[in-house]
Amino acid sequence: GLGVTSIGRVNGHYFQNSKDLAFYYDALDNKMLPVSKGKLVSLDDIIRRWVIERLMCDFEVIKKDFQTLFEKSFDSYFAEELDRLKAFEKKCFVKQTPEKITVIASGELFIRNIASCFDWYLQQDKSRTMFSKSI
Hints:
alpha+beta, 3-stranded antiparallel beta sheet, elongated, disordered C terminus
């Protein structure tokens, strides 16, 4: 990625550039990459990235396409996530059918919130925060 905090992807790895502007320019001046974080992605990361990209780019996930690509049942793999989507369905932002998930025009402004239902890392952070508050 180009720029402060940008994210790049190379050979199954993600890298994020530093958010510190001085560090970013200093690294470039010294012919170094201004990377502050990196991660090797898992198959689950790839699957979730595909779903999130479909939602954010197409406002739709076709379950048959998912099954063809990943040889998994969408509804089984994402049972918990589909439950989380029901809140958006009640607000008429999302429509779920056996064939697909569609973000309705009224939900397009909330696409990041909707797509976050499929973000495993975000859900882990939420449950960790909820657990720590209850102690």
